[in-house]
Amino acid sequence: MNLGRNCCHRFGFPHDCNQAVRAFAQRQGLQRSDDEVCFLEAGGMASQLVREWMGIQQFPVATQTALHRLLGKLKQESVDTLTILVLGKGGVGKSSTVNSIVGERVAIVSAFQSEAMRPLICSRSRAGFTLNIIDTPGLIEGGFVNDHALDLIKRFLINKTIDILLYVDRLDGYRVDDLDLQVTKAISKSFGQQIWRRGIVVLTHAQLSPPDELRYADFVGRRSTILQDVVHKAAGFKKSEAQIPVVLVENSGRCNTNSGGEKVLSDGTVWLPNLVEKIVEVATNSSKPILIDKKLIEGPDANQWRKRWIPLLLALQYFLVVKPIRWVIENDIEKERSERPAWEIYDETGNKNVFYRRR
């Protein structure tokens, strides 16, 4: 199937637009081949193709078995579509993690090329289950939160439901500073704090030798706890609430493997099934998926909120202002009328009885 042509047909473009689609993708840092996910923007709309998940067959047999078991668990929970949003700073391995999960090169990864400046959605289907995974640009620019990137992501996600948030960082990032808190708070502000209840912290570059002769487990524990505390604060969780889960990832082709050819970490964990298992756990927990609608992005309508107070203000105005003034006016009129001379009332009404009442 010619994916470029298929995308063009969706927008009513002519047959010969394949080259234009590829050129557009190259300009936006997206896919350069018709064999990859076709993503085309036209008039603010995006076309997305769901392809058969063939990449799963590239995994070792044991990994395939584990993944099919986990996907089967989702189907048992009546979950037949899963949408994963991948967020984080630039250069932490977001795109590589997307490629590792899908088992295909759907996102461009290059040490000599800046990451994509626009979000990319990849959709794969397998045995009635559809996986949507959304790669995003880095959230930091020049040492500050990139508001432009956040705005692009928010607009891209309008009317989409997010089942899982993968917040990606590096395990070998030895410091956590104020910038990490700014990024996590920006995510909370943009998509709501509840999105963290569907969140997982993914630490890449997990095949490392810890510094200062630390044990691997100790180093991982310290790094994980520090990031969990940052997210906990940004999400506004209570101290008694459970911490966000952390999963380790090693996307490098030099990652160690076990006898079955599966990629393993320094502690022997087969990381891809472990990541997917954690995704399944979060996807089936008691929290609700996050619908990214206009109200969530733009916040509540301030004018609509003010309108709720109009009836109360009118009632207060009547009882505290209008009614007292009316009472004073009516009293003044009655008093003035009672003090008028009889001849004036007679002259006005012609009633002679007023002379007798005044005696």
Topology pattern, helix = H, strand = E: HHEEEHEHEEEEHEEHEHEHEHHHHH
- In terms of per-residue confidence, which ranges show pLDDT below 50 for 5 or more consecutive residues? 1-18, 24-47
Helical stretch count? 13
Morphology call: elongated
Helical proportion, percent range: 40-55%
Beta-strand residue fraction? 15-25%
Kindly report the average pLDDT value. 81
* Termini separation: 112 Å
Major pleated sheet: 7 strands, mixed
Strand order of the largest sheet: 3-5-6-4-10-11-12
Q: Determine the structural class based on helices, strands and strand pairing.
A: alpha/beta
The radius of gyration is 33 Å
Q: Count of DSSP E strands? A: 13
Explain the layout of strands and helices:
Layout: H1 3-11, H2 18-27, E1 39-42, E2 45-48, E3 50-52, H3 61-76, E4 81-88, H4 94-102, E5 120-126, E6 129-135, E7 140-141, E8 144-145, H5 147-157, E9 160-162, E10 164-170, H6 178-191, E11 199-204, H7 216-235, E12 246-248, H8 271-283, E13 290-292, H9 294-298, H10 302-307, H11 310-338, H12 342-349, H13 353-357
Parallel strand pairs: 3-5, 4-6, 4-10, 10-11, 11-12
Antiparallel strand pairs: 1-2, 5-6, 7-8, 9-13
Task: Give an overview of the whole structure.
The chain is 43% helix and 16% strand. With 359 residues, it is α/β, with parallel strands linked by helices. It has a 7-stranded mixed beta sheet, sandwiched between helices. It has a two-stranded antiparallel ribbon with strand order 1-2. It has a two-stranded antiparallel ribbon with strand order 7-8. The chain starts with a helix and ends with a helix. The N terminus is likely disordered.
